[in-house]
Amino acid sequence: MEFQSVLALFWLIAGGVSFYFSIGNARVWTSIAVGFFLILLGEIIPGAMPFLPGLDNAYVLAMGHIIGTISILVMSHGFQEYYVFTRTLDFEGSKRFVYLSVLGVIAASLVFLLINPTPTEEVRKVIRIVENTNWVFLSLINIDLIRKIYLNVKDTPISNGFIAFMVVFACIFLWKGSQLYIDVFNLEMIKDTFPLRYEISFWCKNIGNVLASITVGGTFLYLGKLLR
After folding, report:
1. What is the DSSP string of 156-190?
2. Residue 216 has pLDDT above 70, yes or no
3. For the domain that residue 81 is a member of, what is the CATH number?
């Protein structure tokens, strides 16, 4: 089985578990779980299943990266909400509002793409760089934020789940940071000149991606068991 197919299987499990988790647990978890689910839609399906209808369309490819950006923003907002919840035991909104808000942002992004010129390969690369930049820096911020959440809940049964989330974001940082490095320095085009740098970045990207999918699925399964 090809690597991309195996990766898609891991993320299919991780995405399915996270979406189910968002439905079956308290509102304060919804943004976090939905954000991780969006990785499956935006990142994995277009790369692993290019044979599906429409996945060679420039707008679809660009939307994949935009959804990836929305993903990290949604889950980061979710962790901020959870941190506030641990301090105040209060949160606002409903599950329906989270789902509708995410769908609304995706729809608005699609409209924005459609009213502009067709995104060329160069434009899509810029969008991907913006996406990965958000992932890299927000992963670091989220690790620190989750550490603070852990300190607030360390005496509860779910505390180890937040340690697992820190591991998740460390894996994502490896994955997205490596891809960002490849794109910024255009290593795909000059890999014959810098073969070692390209190979290290390529394998770090793939290893980080696989580890992220495994840790995401494992973390939500673990938390789901604790919160039943």
Report:
1. STTHHHHHHHHHHHHHHHHHHHHHHHHHHTTTTTS
2. yes
3. 1.20.1070.10
Q: How far is CA 199 from CA 145, 196, 205, 206, 210, in A?
A: 32, 5, 10, 11, 17
Q: How many domains does the chain have?
A: 1
Name residues whose C-beta falls within 8 Å of residue 214's C-beta, 6 or more positions apart in sequence: 10, 14
pTM to 2 decimal places? 0.93
For residue 139, give the nearest of 36, 13, 5, 42 by alpha carbon: 36
| pLDDT attached to residue 79 | 96
Q: How far is CA 128 from the centre of its chain?
A: 13
* Confidence (pLDDT) at 52: 60
Cα 194-196-197 angle, rounded to 5 deg: 70
Range of the domain at 28: 2-226
One-letter amino acid for residue 124 of the chain: R
pLDDT in tens, 42-101: 776 565 555 566 667 888 889 999 999 999 999 999 999 999 999 887 777 788 999 999
- Residue-by-residue DSSP string for 48-97: H-TTSTTTT-HHHHHHHHHHHHHHHHHHHHHHHHHHHHHHHS---S-HHH
